[in-house]
Amino acid sequence: MSINKILGIFLLTTLLSCMQDENPYWSKGQSLFEVQEIFNNERLPNIVTAKDGTLIAVWGWNNVRVRRSEDGGKTWGSEIPIGPGLNTGGAIVDEASGDILIFTEDTHPPAPLHMFRSKDNGKTWMEEEITIHSDSKGNIPSMCMNEHGITLQHGDFKGRLIRPSRVYAGGNGTEFWHLHYTNAIYSDDGGKTWQPSEPFPIYGTGEAAIEELSDGTLYYNSRRHKSTDGQSPLWRYTAMSKDGGHTWENPKISDVLPDGNQHSFYGLMGGLVRLSVEGHDILLFSNIDMPKKEGVADFEFQKRWSERKRGTIWVSFDGGKTWPLKKLVDEGSFAYSSLAAGRKGTPSEGMIYLLYECDGGGKIACFNLNWLTEGKHWKEFLRD
């Protein structure tokens, strides 16, 4: 065989190997990061990526509104009003129809719930009558305040819409917090009717996030709203579902992911997203990275606001088993957050989006996996 043929085979093999190794969020090793403010008052973030790649940022404490980006987050259109009340999170892109669903509540929950649907990638919205059934304890879930929902892509429940929810059992006063529990609601008819799941197996929880792993298992990550003893720092709680999100099993306390300021006993809503990379379960989690100071026991309730800083991303390459990588996003004010991932073949391809509360407004950070790893190849973080 001639040297030219040998060289040609070598080059073709190398090219095929590179193609097989393609991870759109790696951006061929080019580091990308930028941040801009897109909301200048109120709070409560959610962000999703429509099927055409349009970014839909949902926001609002008194008046829910949406902003759209059709160019991968570079520019944003004017605010589109949805209605009065709270953005209660759980926005969902229906992967079958392409419709986008968002939820609101009239006032701080428990309160009347509303669902709005967009059939044109977030340009227009119409309220829709829905039915939400009671859970096994006779409670109607509240929606406030949770990470976005998802459409299940695998197994017997493919096509199911599911989003985190919660129950304010007994009331919203602090004396009832130990009775609260987080759960999920799911729909098998495109969002017309919703069935609550069984409660998350640890009480005192609220404000959760759900992602589906490549084998169809659901990974559930929840805020512990307040420590049971009123002093102990909080860590995130996790569980799994094998039945499409109806029941949750194997509850654990994370020893890596913080639930807000570890110098406080009061948790914080975090963001969660899975990157769509063939054969891998890469999860990203957002919260604040403020470890408890040694020798200081300052668990004042009001500290939960003034000491929400140092927004950080944690990365798991094995579906949430381990979290070997973290990266600071914003040194300053940082509170509730929501994560979304770009879609292949659209202007959002290869990018990750973090919408977060900051100093009375909302910022959007756009970045890729190379920025998170600081140039170290992402496959070096994979477990054998």
CATH architectural type: 6 Propeller
**What is the highest CATH level, the class?**
Mainly Beta
Give the % helix.
under 10%
- CATH fold title: Neuraminidase
Uncertain runs with pLDDT below 50, 5 residues or more?
Answer: 6-20
Helix run count: 3
Inertia-based shape: globular
Domain Sialidase: 65-345
Protein name: exo-alpha-sialidase
GO molecular function, one term: exo-alpha-sialidase activity
Pfam families: BNR_2 (PF13088)
Model description:
It is a single chain. With 384 residues, the chain is mainly beta. The protein has one domain: Neuraminidase (6 Propeller), CATH 2.120.10.10. Helices cover 7% and strands 39% of the residues. The protein is built from 3 helices and 26 strands. Strands 6, 7, 8, 9 and 10 form a 5-stranded antiparallel beta sheet that branches. The protein is globular and about 50 Å long. The two termini are 37 Å apart. Mean pLDDT is 89; it is low at 6-20.
In terms of topology, how is this protein built?
Blueprint lengths: L2 H18 L12 E7 L6 E4 L5 E5 L3 E7 L10 E5 L1 E2 L4 E2 L6 E6 L7 E6 L7 E3 L2 E2 L17 E2 L9 E7 L13 E7 L5 E4 L8 E8 L5 E7 L10 E7 L7 E10 L12 E5 L6 E7 L14 H4 L2 E8 L8 E9 L3 E5 L10 E7 L2 E7 L1 H5 L11
Parallel strand pairs: 11-15
Antiparallel strand pairs: 1-26, 2-3, 3-4, 4-5, 6-8, 7-8, 8-9, 9-10, 12-13, 13-14, 14-15, 16-17, 17-18, 18-19, 20-21, 21-22, 22-23, 24-25, 25-26
In short:
This is exo-alpha-sialidase. This protein has 384 residues and is mainly beta.
